[in-house]
Predict the structure.
Amino acid sequence: MKFSLKTSDILRSASNTVVLLRYEKKIKDNIVKKANEKLKNFLFDKIGSQNFNGEFGKRVSVDSISNYKFNDLCIIGLGEKNKFDSIAAYRIGNIIASKLKNLSESVAVDLSNLPKEYFGIIIEGIVVGCYEYNRFKTKKQSVCKINVVDFYSKKISSSLFKSKVNEAKSISSSISLTRDLVNDPPNKLTPEILADHALRISKNSDVLSCRVYDENELSEMGMGALRAVSLGSDNPPRFIHLSYTPKNKTKKQIAIVGKGITFDSGGLCLKPADSMRTMKMDMAGSAVVLGVMKSVAELKPKVAVHGLIPTTENMTGGLAYKPDDVIEVLNGKTVEIINTDAEGRLALSDALSFAVKNKMTEIVDLATLTGACIVGLGMFTAGVLGNNQKLIKSVLDSAERTGEKMWQLPLDEELSSEIKSNVADIKNSGSRWGGAITAALFLQHFVGDTPWVHIDIAGPSFIEKPNDWYPYGGTGFGVKTIVDYLMSS
Ligand code: BES
Ligand code: MN
Ligand code: ZN
């Protein structure tokens, strides 16, 4: 998809479709009036008959226009001006794409009303809005027709626009990669195959390197928790370490850790059939890490970045780990297994210990960790917990800038009695209450004093009820926030 910036009159555009974006109750400005005159009042008639007032996401269109060079004109409502934010901007991009992707090859979008900080997000929204997953459809579905998008605005310099396009293209292609990985079925995306993806990403770049530890190596290293989770499966586990080194020396070594459970059956504490469905998405954290590392290689932040992925299936084979087992984590702590379905925190415990052992200066982990987080915050918002309020704030700021919904939960020390064990240092699950918090308290045992933020993405990683801005399946949630955070570190 090609994007360019134009400062000329959008009504002279020769694109297939002209899109005008207008705030609520502010639709009839000069451009709209001029278009209406030329269309002999047909536009205002249509606006009137459809009762359109610029409400968010609503749209009025006039097709097959003969007295302009373009064919169709469409006005999309931006909603109330003072409510417009980065989330809205992203959705507008998604809506433009989903409405036009089967109709137009070239689109002209009037951005004259929008603050320039949203330009990049709209571009991301358009590219991501064209996303479709059809790897396993033998008859290919409709493909996105849009290949040229011209933006009309006098607010932004062409050099700033170019850098926004560059960034937005990188981020949206990473989001598509993350979505693909989450959507891939578990028989086609095993831990070994996930590791192959990491190796491929690093081979395509001269600023990335990648080391993959196999089941024997990770056992030798002492990753007893990841190994335990993997024992019930015939597909061997992997530990992936992708690293990015910036050109100039830096003290900041930032670890981005992603839960990579390629299928979570629950293990011996087997999930009921209904809850087991969609558990191919339990590697969404790792998919975010791979998407982020791809963009990191392209956008080259100033800090060093380490993508760490513990990946395994959680299955019920004859050697499967059991409730009552005691296992040893890489940092030496022992864990009593209460519930084999609380496997994510175990896989993460080795990865977090690895980050500390390798002297990372900051750690951010992303994990589809708890159903409790979805109960608390709903499908669309991630839970954020951590041991360092400054780091939490910078992650939340990045989330706000990029339009991803995240909400802080308290890391309430008083709940730590929930994971006290009689036989080992800690146990891997507590009672139902505060499940997202006790999971984070568990993780805290493995980060030492390193500033750390945990993002529970169980809700927003995967959407079962699609709408105008989310397709069915993986969303790529998290990529934008983490890339923004790394670029501003
Ligand atoms: N992968 C699940 C969490 C999950 C649930 C993600 C629903 C996405 C949608 C995780 O491994 C899990 O099973 N968590 C348990 C923890 C419990 C056993 C302490 C849960 O949330 O029920
Ligand atoms: Mn589980
Ligand atoms: Zn899980």
